[in-house]
Amino acid sequence: MLTSATTISPEHCVKAIELLAAIGVLISTLELTATRSLFAVHGLLSWQVMQTHFAWTTRLPLARVLSTIFTGRGFTTLLAVRAFAAAALLLPYRMDTTSAVATAAVVSTGLLLCLRSPYGLDGSDQMLTVIMAALFCYEIAPERGLLRVVALWFIAAQACMAYFSSGFAKLLSSEWRTGKAISGVLGTANYGNRVVHSFMVGRPHWCCVAAWTVIVFEITFSVVLFMPSHPLRILFLAVGGTFHVTTALVMGLNTFLWAFVATYPAVIYTALEFNGPH
Amino acid sequence: MAGTLVDVIGTTVLAFWLILTAAFQTGARRWRWLARLNKFPLIPNWQFFAPHPGMHDYHVLYRDLLANGSVSCWTELPQPRPRSLLAAAWNPAKRHNKALFDFATVLLRTATECDEFVVKTSVPYISIVNYISELPRSHLVVGRQFILMATFAEQPPRPAEPLFLSGFHEC
Predict the structure, then answer these.
(1) Nearest CA in chain A to B126
(2) Any chain B CB within 8 A of the CB of A50?
(3) DSSP 3-state assignment of B59?
(4) Exposed, middle or buried by CB within 10 Å (0-12, 13-18, 19+), for A203?
């Protein structure tokens, strides 16, 4: 649908974003459910300790309310609400208000999870919250209102900023410019990969090429908004998709794939708005 | 009228959010107040693995103080199993690993910048003590301490480094 079209309606664009982002939210929520022991009383992310992160979360009566939400059945309910809301966004046919309610539920549960533990979150959680908040704005906007377009521009702008900021910070780093970062990260247990690391470790030139490929791709991502050719745009975004599939396979960054690829329909929409169909 | 109001408020909120996100990425001193306020964190930091990527793994080990005054050998907290290809779709272990990485990062920064009291009352410190205090132990154990170590996958090989040693805490 996206690759063959020379124009894209905001409705189609939002449907594609919802689908991809909802898959990301659903996976991340089910992963949290699978690691419930982390959130137990003596788990690494125990609420009894985490609530001291902010002074105001330890004060009564709020502390009692939060304790009900963030422990035991309350926390299970929180995750269930988030998972059902994400699943609702995957339904092909739904009531008009479903998307607004579901995106609002995903955003509010996302913020509650941040409050539950700011530790252990990653950039994909943030991007999914950003996307869902923008989708909520889209859903509550008037039929032909400015906010509908602004919500899609916002997602595209956040994606461009994320890539540029990440690429520019890498450009300033000697570890990245020399390629050391590639072999260094690949050698770790957290984000590494034994097979790829053993291949790259004796090949500094390969590491350098890989590092500069990432830097150049990330810094130039925003160019996609101004590309005059639609096929070229799609090709560039396919490179982005391949990049995220690679990081999912090699580094285990599975939810980054869904979170960032979910922004691509908004990027295409914004690019078409800027350049017109070609 | 209500529609226009939603339009105006929604557009303003998204525009502000975008501007604050852009400002936050600069890391400029004038935006430090934003970092302090952004504990939730609503303003994303998009600088993944940069400028200094984590090229090491953190390890938490603990040992016991026994009633007779002797200490046990160090035991490492269970490490995650090596990832399979399935992790590209389903990777629940990343939460545990990232939480430990975040704890270590904050704990080391706090230890560098603050006094012992602040360190020992920090969330990462108490979280690790809370976690290890409930791990199985013999009835002879009267206290437990942890050490934070880093291992590196660099060439030439670099030995593991002890980074932080806690005091003994009663069990």
Answers:
(1) A49
(2) yes
(3) strand
(4) middle
Q: Identify the residue among A37, A54, A217, A254 best suited for mutation to test binding to B, counting B beta carbons within 10 A and taking the highest.
A: A254
A52 touching chain B per CB within 8 A: yes
Q: At B141, is the secondary structure helix, strand, or coil? A: strand
Q: Which residue in B11, B44, B99 is closest to A126 by CB distance?
A: B44
CB distance B46 to A218 below 8 Å: no
Judged by a CB distance cut-off of 8 A, whether residue A141 touches chain B is yes
C-alpha to C-alpha distance for A82 and A90, rounded to whole angstroms: 13
Q: What is the pLDDT of residues A82-123, one digit of tens each?
A: 999 999 999 988 887 999 999 999 999 999 999 999 999 999
Q: A152 or B78: whose pLDDT is higher?
A: A152
> Nearest-CA distance from B162 to chain A in Å?
17
Alpha-carbon distance B15 to nearest alpha carbon in chain A (angstroms) = 8
Residue type, A265: P
DSSP state of A118: S
Residue A16 near residue A1 (C-beta atoms within 8 A): yes
Taking each helix axis from N to C end, the angle separating A10-34 and A254-261, rounded to the nearest 10 degrees, works out to 160
**Which residue has 């350098």 as its token pair?**
A208
| ipTM summary value | 0.91
**For chain B, first and last CA: distance in Å?**
64
Dihedral sign for Cα B7, B13, B18, B22, please.
positive
Q: How far, in Å, CA of A23 to CA of A19, rounded?
A: 6
**DSSP at A60:** T
Taking only the tens place, the pLDDT of each residue in A34-73 is 999 999 999 999 999 999 988 888 998 999 999 999 999 9
Q: For residue B46, give the nearest of A154, A161, A183 by CB distance.
A: A161
